[in-house]
Design goal:
Layout lengths: L4 H6 L4 E6 L4 H8 L5 E5 L7 H14 L3 E4 L5 H9 L4 E4 L5 H10 L23 H6 L6 E6 L2 H5 L1 H5 L6 E4 L1 H7 L12 H13 L4 E5 L3 H10 L3 E6 H22 L1
Parallel strand pairs: 1-2, 1-8, 2-3, 3-4, 4-5, 5-6, 6-7, 7-8
Amino acid sequence: MKKNLAEKLRDKELIYGSHIFGGMPMLTEAMAQCGFDVLWIDMEHTSIDHENLVNNLIAARAGGTPAWVRIPWNDPVRAKPVLDMGADGIIFPYIRTAEEAALAAAACSYPPEGIRGYGPLRALDYGAISQMEYVTETFRHCRRIVQIEHIDAVKNLREIAAVEGIDGFIVGPNDLSASVGLIGQVRHPDMLPLYEQIAAVLKEFGKPFGVSTGFNEDFLQYWVDLGATILFAGNDVGYVREGAIAVREGYERLTKNA
């Protein structure tokens, strides 16, 4: 029997994901039909707003794929409406300390465990799930993911990894490289010891981890060899551009042979 996303995350099996940057529901639905384990809907570096987000979450579900949402900042106020929209997971960017990781975890849980305010709608399936079922069990199905993308996070990683309530870690090589003066050089020799340190600590703590990057098979294989199980690469806008270029190049071959 095929495992679902939560089971794969729990068992540290490979999870294949891709990014949603354009926020066009039809493209999101099409991508959700392509066999990825999860889609990453990005609100940090895109124009995706709340109205656009809920339509993309609906599209992802229609296509049969869970969706994690990266919010713009580690802020409970930003996390709250995304949780209430029924995202399958929240990705918190730029976590640098255990205190910041604890705030992320608390933002996703109701008192007394956390500080989340009550007010779900789509997350309740519009009332199909009872209030008590939701606040005691269903809300826990939303995965809480933090990003390691600053040298401070690497230095504090043992304390961050010990925080309760975090389900996984995703390395952001671009910002991590920038934080040590090597922006854009994610495969620089000086970056490799940092990646290896991250992998060693998270494996010691038994935490699933992965990477968000462009699609490069060698670099992704490097991460898999380190023990990464959560892989995010490629994006909707890039796929459209690549497809359009392929068609245009095909036209050129036709005209050359005419």
